[in-house]
Amino acid sequence: MRGFFITGTDTEIGKTSITAGLTHLLSEADLRVAPVKSLAAGQELIDGQWVNEDVQRLHASQRLGMRPDQVGPLQFRAACAPHIAAALEGQRIERALLLAAVRASVALGDLALVEGVGGFRVPLSEGFDTADLAQDLGLPVVLVVGLRLGCINHALLTAEAVRARGLALVGWVANTVDAAMPHVADNLAALDAALAAPCWGHVPRLSDPSAAAVAAHLNLARVQEALVAAAPAP
């Protein structure tokens, strides 16, 4: 499997926006990108169908003709922690089944962008969390840092957890959550120095956060460098 696992410093910090932006960026570079929202909790009934907003955004960003259920292979109705959402529907998130579903979806492309859920360590079932999922997939990790007060601590703790699992942190993206956050440049400098991984971009607060608009703030050269570095030896 070739690609990246997209995680974040918290929930609601823009993982889906960045994943969609990366999908657009790499698709424009003529790569066949399969974006996958590994788990999605929170659906709305629209025109008689239950849909998840994050899955819809990723689906709109891809060019492989993937179905929504392939972009989001495991979806639940309630907008809450995945293991709770599953229990509300009388289900349990099974590790082997989830892995098989994600692998089947990413096999539709040549490059996988697998988005986690919430932060890096979100419980999925007993003895299984999103960090385990990232380990099972074995993909290098990209960290989305939601720029707001406290983001440096959250980012460093997440980076430490990623590396403790034996995974490579190959890049990070700063995504503006709090447009009024003071001392942004100083925070970015501190993150750049401490994370020991290249910054792939700084996304401002966008009035239209389309995949193309987000992609305009991402550094294709740095993403491609990470792809080359992660490629298996011939």
TrEMBL record:
Mg(2+) binds at T16, D54, E115. It is found in: Cytoplasm. Pfam families: AAA_26. SUPFAM superfamilies: P-loop containing nucleoside triphosphate hydrolases. InterPro entries: DTB_synth_BioD (IPR004472), P-loop_NTPase (IPR027417). GO terms for biological process: biotin biosynthetic process. Its EC number is 6.3.3.3. Keywords: ATP-binding, Biotin biosynthesis, Cytoplasm, Ligase, Magnesium, Metal-binding, Nucleotide-binding. GO terms for molecular function: ATP binding; dethiobiotin synthase activity; magnesium ion binding; protein homodimerization activity. It is an enzyme of class 6 (ligase). The active site is at K37. Pathway: Cofactor biosynthesis; biotin biosynthesis; biotin from 7,8-diaminononanoate: step 1/2. It comes from the Bacteria. Its main location: cytoplasm. Its cofactor is Mg(2+). It catalyses: (7R,8S)-7,8-diammoniononanoate + CO2 + ATP = (4R,5S)-dethiobiotin + ADP + phosphate + 3 H(+). ATP binds at D54, E115, G116, V117, G118, N175, T176, P204, R205, L206. One of its GO terms (cellular component) is cytosol. Belongs to the dethiobiotin synthetase family. Homodimer. This is ATP-dependent dethiobiotin synthetase BioD. The lineage of its organism: Bacteria, Pseudomonadati, Pseudomonadota, Betaproteobacteria, Burkholderiales. The gene is bioD.
